[in-house]
Amino acid sequence: YTDETHKTGYLRAFFNTVKSGTDSSIERCFITGVSPVTMDDLTSGFNIGTNYSLSSEFNEMMGFTEDEVRQMLAYYSTTCRFNHSIDEIIEIMKPWYDNYCFAPESYDTTTMYNSNMVLYFVKNYILYGKVPRDMIEDNIRIDYEKLRMLIRKDKEFSHDASIIQTLVSQGYIAGELKRGFPAVSIVDPDNFISLLYYFGMLTVSGTHEGKTKLTIPNQVVREQLYTYLLNTYNEADLNFSNYERSELSSALAYRGEWQVYFAYIADCLKRYASQRDKQKGESFVHGFTLAMTAQNRFYRPISEQDTQAGYVDIFLCPLLDIFPDMVHSYIIELKYAKYKDP
Predict the structure, then answer these.
(1) Which of 17, 205, 210, 245 has the fewest CB atoms within 10 Å distance of its CB?
(2) Contacts of range 238-241, beta carbons closer than 8 Å, 24 or more positions apart
(3) 3-state SS assignment for residue 50
(4) What PANTHER family does this protein map onto (predicted)?
């Protein structure tokens, strides 16, 4: 990376060429898909640009507004057979694909749907006339190695200051969004929060104590983030084996066999959580349980931080639009008994 962005590296040379071209053949250019890390490291080679990443006038540039999604559905409902009303489809899609905000000044105005995921859903609905069994398209998943890099960086913080752990346990994180920062400063808390935001893992949700409040935008991102969170506790794979995962999840959903399912989660918690993590108390157990239940394809776990209702710690909302023959749903109340040395 350093070789490409410094001295005579290809990327630096490319931006130098674009810069020099503005005196002759290039009147104006619009660049997308460049991370704030790269742009900061290239500043001296490309210091004539304006960064619009957090500008409110571009908030609706990426993605679909709900009105645009409704217009799309209205059009296809006249050319294809729809087994749901448009309102019903929006209700299904919204928690999975909506809620992106790309500028602090645009908060509480228009939220954006992930356009790739909307098109994936609509394509499958047109082809098969029903809600896709898998609400997440494989191609939309952020490159795993990039996320592993983020997890490794997050583990460089002390466990008590872990950004991802705080995000999961309290439902939000507050910080200052940075327009750019060098790669060597990625471990700075505000820079790490900003990187999660630019990777699409966080969205603007207002302000908190004078800082920008950021939350997980939707269920697509939440499912990914919870899965990656498990890797912060141990580099080993904490997922169920494919067979065991399928069997335990199915038994929970269709036969009401909750004891063995939650015993497995408790066993993972006991085996993989460090002693320091155990001292975090109920918030840690809450986050770990959310991460584990998010891997269950039959439910959408909703925490009290998500609903702000405060009635239960976690509600396992059954995905009845996908699995209409399910007969069990669950509410989870977590109690934490402090560990004492014998």
Answers:
(1) 210
(2) 238/268, 238/272, 238/292, 239/295, 240/264, 240/295
(3) coil
(4) AAA-ATPASE-LIKE DOMAIN-CONTAINING PROTEIN, CONSERVED PROTEIN, WITH A WEAK D-GALACTARATE DEHYDRATASE/ALTRONATE HYDROLASE DOMAIN
* Burial status of residue 273 (CB atoms within 10 A of its CB: 0-12, 13-18, 19 or more): middle
Please give the structure tokens belonging to residue 110.
Answer: 């228009």
> Could you tell me the sign of the dihedral formed by the alpha carbons of 103, 105, 108, 111, in that order?
negative
User: For residue 59, what are its two tokens?
Assistant: 């908030």
Which residue's structure tokens are 């694909």?
Answer: 97
DSSP, collapsed to helix, strand or coil, labels residue 64 as strand
Q: Contact at 8 Å (CB) between 218 and 200? A: no
Q: What is the pTM of this model?
A: 0.77
Burial of 57 (0-12, 13-18, 19+ CB in 10 A): exposed
Nearest 5°: CA angle at 296, between 291 and 297? 130
Q: Is 46 helix (H, G, I), strand (E, B) or coil?
A: coil
Residues of the chain with pLDDT under 50: 159-161, 236-240
Please tell me the distance from the alpha carbon of residue 7 to that of residue 238, in angstroms, as a whole number.
42
State the pLDDT at residue 230.
Answer: 67
E strand or H helix that includes residue 315: strand 314-318
DSSP assignment of 247-285: HHHHHHHHS--HHHHHHHHHHHHHHHS-HHHHTTTHHHH
Q: Which residues contact 335 (CB under 8 A, 6 or more apart)?
A: 282
Measured distance CA(98)–CA(113) in Å, rounded: 4
Two tokens at 158? 């002390």
Fill in the DSSP letter of residue 134.
S
